[in-house]
Amino acid sequence: MQTLWLVIKMSNKTKLMRAGITGVTGVVGAGIAAAVIAGLALLPMPSYIGTAPSLTVAPAPTDQRRVCQGPLVQVMANSTDASTFLSSGTPTTETYSPSSKVTQNNLDAVDNMAPDSMGAPTVLEVPAEKDAAEQPLLAGNQYQQTSSDELSGLATAACSEPANDSWLVGGSTDLGRTTLLMLANPTGVTATVTFEIFGESGYIDAVSQEGIIVLPGEQRIVSLAAFAPDVVEPVVHVHSVGGQILASMQHSVTRKLQPSGVDWVSPGAGPNTSQVFPGVFLMGATKQDEDEHGAVQSDLEPTVRVLVPGTQDAEVNLKLISETGETQAITTRVRAQTTLQLPFTDVADGTYTVIVTSDQPVVAGVRTLQSATADPSTVNAQTAPQTSATPTPTPSATPGAPAAPVTPTEQPAIAPVPLAGGDFTWFSSSTRLTGDVALPIPAWLNPTLTLYNPGSKSITAVLSARGEADVTVTLDSAKMTTVPLRAGVRYSLAGAQGLLGGLTFVAQGLGSSIALNPANVLGSSLTIYPR
Amino acid sequence: MKTRVTAIIVARQGGEHLARTLDALAKQTRRPDIVIAVDNSTKVTAQAQLQVFGPSQVLRGGGKLSYGEALDVAAKAFPAVTGPDDFLWFLAQDSAPAPDALAQLIGALEVSPSVAIAGPKQMDWERPDYIREYGVTLAQGGRTISLVVDELDQAQHDLVSDVMAVGANGMLVRQQVWEQLGGFDPHLTVVDDALDFCVRARLAGHRVSVVPTARVLNAGDGVIGPVGTDSYRARKKRARQYRSAELYRRLVYCSGAAVFWHWLGLLPSAILRSLGQLLAKRPGAVSGEFRSAFSAAFSGGSVGRARRKLRSTKTAPWSALAPLRVTRADVRRREALAREAAQIRKHGEKRPLHFFSGGGAWVVMALLFVSIGANSPLVGATAISGGGLLPLSATVSELWSSLGWGWRAGAFGVVGPADAFSGVIALLGTLTFWQPSFSLVLLWFLALPIAGLGAWLLTARMTQRAGIRAFVAIGYALSPALLGGLTEARPAAVLTHLLLPFLFFAGIRAARSWSASATTALLFAAVVACSPSLTPALLVIWLGTILLTGRSVPRFLAIPIPAAALVAPLVVMQVLGLNLFGLAADPGPATGSVVPPQWQLALGFPTDGLGGWLLSIDSLPWANPVASVWVAILVGVLVALAFVGLFSQYPIRAQLAVLVMVLGLATAVLASGLQVSFDGSEAVAIWPGSGLSLAWLGLMVAAGTGASILRRFSFYPAFVGITAVVLLAAPSLAAANLGTAQVYASNGQTLPAYVVAQAAIEPEVGTLVLTPQPDGGLGTDLVRGTGLTLESVSTYVTTGAGFAKQESVLAETASNLSSVSGTDSTDALTTLGVGFILLTPPLQAVGEEISPDAQTISARVKATLDANPGVEIVGKTDAGLLWRFPGYDAAATTIPEPSLPVEPWRLLILSGQALVILLTLLLAIPTGTVMSDLRPKRYLPGLIESDDDPVSADPLAGDQDVEQN
Hints:
heterodimer; A: mainly beta; 7-stranded antiparallel sheet; globular
């Protein structure tokens, strides 16, 4: 181009020619530039994504320990001392550890007047294998169905790891409602337990600051009403200093002198901006009471109880996902440190995954109702395994009698009695699974596993058990599924990393749930990014 | 007594010069009695001409003889000395004497017997009325000074007769004296041979005088004395020859006791003088200084022989010569005159920039006010944080200590190269030495005005029109790339944007001035340091300029050298580690931002959402079509102006500017696809804004050219352009006030105040920073003292290079701390020197919420640390949850074995880099004499705007600026 100009200068031609060349080069230059820019803007360009340096480190394996909270208890009748309790039947505990034999030791339930033969909180233990790369798997689930003058219904709970910090979303100390806190200390260190209790009118500042001393190897039972009477929607934050404890709740309802359900409330996932409840079964969801103005006050309706433990109000979104993929959502504002019960409005009967999300960390729990008249067929898995037992009510099961002991592989011996008072179920939120899980299934009716994939990638998990065909479950992002299980079988769930799960049991007038939590979540392998 | 003149004529080649000389010789009124010709040509080309002339004898030289040696050859044919009036007349092929020259010279010698040597007035061959040389003398230090240089002969020097020495050309010398003194010194082959001879003659008691009436032409063929051409190479060579001769004469002339000291001083003085040469913008003379010193120092006994010869003939003391030396004051006066003459010759007259009257000051002031308004939340801040911002070290010495090579912050036990960017930051922090972090606040406030100033100056090189200058300045200052860099808190990108116009401003002059070249080299290094991804584009521009305009002079070729010196250690390490893409990584902490789709990049926006025009990032790419169309229209105004520029009267400038724009865009688009550095588990894309800065500069220059098409009415398109640019920038300018900008005023601390307080007592206290990652992993970093600083971060670490085994020690400790495990972490924490453990809020993947995995790991770390009896919870802080490890003991801290040795590499690399930068800096300082480069400027129309016809212009340069050599 330059030589061109020089030539023009040398030839000393007129401006006309210069203008001509300017025009041509200008058009050509603009054309080339436009083409290149268009290419840059529209064509796919090569890209390179590096991989961050990381190290996967497995912590040294330790002995595994799970604590089961023991039998349902009732407040001792005709006693002047309101803080003494008596076992109401014996729970059945299913345990499973693929690696070695599970040892069981009873804890000393000092507040329970009944002998250990009537059931006691137990500690399940398996030792860490020497030089093992991974932590041993261990799981236990306990269940108890009762039908006495004071308590009736089905209660199930997982035997869990003790913790310093637990959030219990459930219970009520309203008239006719009894909520007992059970604090088991399986460690060798004395635990000093303090509570923070929140209710529908805010933080309840009535708790003795000295705390409750739980000696090593002891279980204490206290009535929540002693700290927070007449609270309809309590949420309890249990904090222990020293030893780690298993905190749980026993919530029972008596309406018009008729026992109307009982359940254990297990610790859910801690404060988080999302809480997930896989397998929430809703049936006979009655239309919401007109007087309630959006918030649920009656415990005759299914609800989601939400608390914002922080000091800022939160925008809370409630979303339901069904197996067919339908989602329904409502959004509401929740005041800080005040519990609120959100309704399920216009929800068809069925099994759902309930997802609570918020812009602030929240804790939440879900309660559903199983009235004595409601038909559970809509919520139980439709394709029951061929070998599973057909539920046959056993009329001979007398109310109040302890359940007959069963061996794990046998067919369930308990049959549900359609209890006149009905039952309710507390769901605690599940935590994402981080590895394989052992699943000892209680020998009760219609055990159903619900899995939900909160991630962005599809996940395939395999459910296997000795003598059973493997069940492979593939879940796409934000999808849920239910898997019917055989009662009394010890399953192993592999490849479930990233999934959320829950076990549910439901029959006419009875129901309960166990949230699946990752085994030994605090001892699994970690990916460390050292930069 | 009869005089006898033996003329010796030495020819190196035949031709016109020789013919004219022989002709002049033949026309002498007093013809020499004997003519001895020495044919010193390599191919005997002068033989025929000499034979035709018919000298007494034609001797063969062989082509390699110096003038002194040729005389020695001729001496064999000299007739025997018969008396004091036997003269030798020294001529060369290019020394045509005036017809009466010999007669006048002989007259001078005959009149005064004490005069042994007479020299003619040496006139210029091409301009015979100009004096080329007329007597030579010595400065006080021994330097050769020609008494008259290139002056029109108006008889102004005709009163001079006695001089220290005369040049060899046309010199008439008594044969007796010649033989007494032993001729010219064989070591002084080119310059100072006659000077030395004359000095020895004077010391032997003779006089030397010039004869004003005798004139001899001199073409400077290099037969006698040095080659007289004015090329750069010839000047360089002459300077070396004079220096060589000076040093040699110094050793010969000095007293016996001083020889040794003078000899010892040769090398140090060469070094000192080299620095002076750099300051004087003569880097080419540096090698000559050293060659001269070595040739004088190792002259193989010549000094001894010369000293003996001098001693044997010396009768007068040195003090006898003192009055003939030139005084220092006179030397200074001569230099000042020469400088002035060179200035005038080179530039004619100075043309000011009109910074104040041309509107530059107004533009900068307006941008300053806009900047203060846009950054109003930062007013009064002493430090800013967010995005890629980190505080700087508290003291200047710490700032500079992280340069070169050494322990790298942000990784455990890693030794490696620092980024060149650390140097830029150290420099920046030194500007506000009382509080280095404050310099970033200043940078944020001054970014717009400085960018505007740079673009204004660059435009001032091209046009006189204030409207266009203001348009380009405002357009560049309000470019989406700069505003994106400011809102996303990317100091490296902001610095790049500010430096680019100055780089081109200096680069345009780089081929013509050493000062501009060195400044360009430093700016180039700074830009490459701030945005390594721009290097390919800049190198293409550099290479293209060399190929297109033939600027292959050392001044232009040397531009990338400082940058190369700064990045060399990193390049070597990354190449050895096969981490080539890592070289493109942005310096500073790796912080991801949403990479916009390519069409947004092509519109000039480095951030997603068109700089705030699309308010919601979550919406679909075309969710806000109206806003997109508006942006496209506004950018289209600038593009249209640039398009018009291609058909303006300066099409080449517009073409080149569009080329630069396309290069910048390509850089931006390609860079945004490279994710090479890591923020924990997250791969971070290269910031596309640096390429867009370059593209926008090209666009603005092209648009400014387009605006000029209306000549006197160019204000109107410029005004339209300014309006478009201001509208485009409005949402970004409002970002800080709306709170959507990432940058915020802070206390300049990255760690909790509790840790900072402790670090004041224990400066080496370690804080283990645990960051939950979106994929459920845990980022682990051990920081010392008050935490990471901007200058201590290096791409060597952020790109994951040089992964060291020691890092697994840290990883294991972090893993056990974050787990219920049988291992007690106390020992590991003590050894690592950890005093605190900080659990920061979870890292978010770019453009996403905190992931459930991250929340899970966060809860896990909290639970396990709470249950860990070895650590105590401090509580919630601004930076996250803090635990204290009471077992911290500075004495028990074990420094990990480094992955690579720190020394001697640190010393070697630092001294090498410092040397290169210092030398470049010496060259860049605008001092020293102008070294006129009389290379003819090439004619290229269409680059420089002025109302008069551009008669002479460098293709890229303007000539309307102040020379800042």
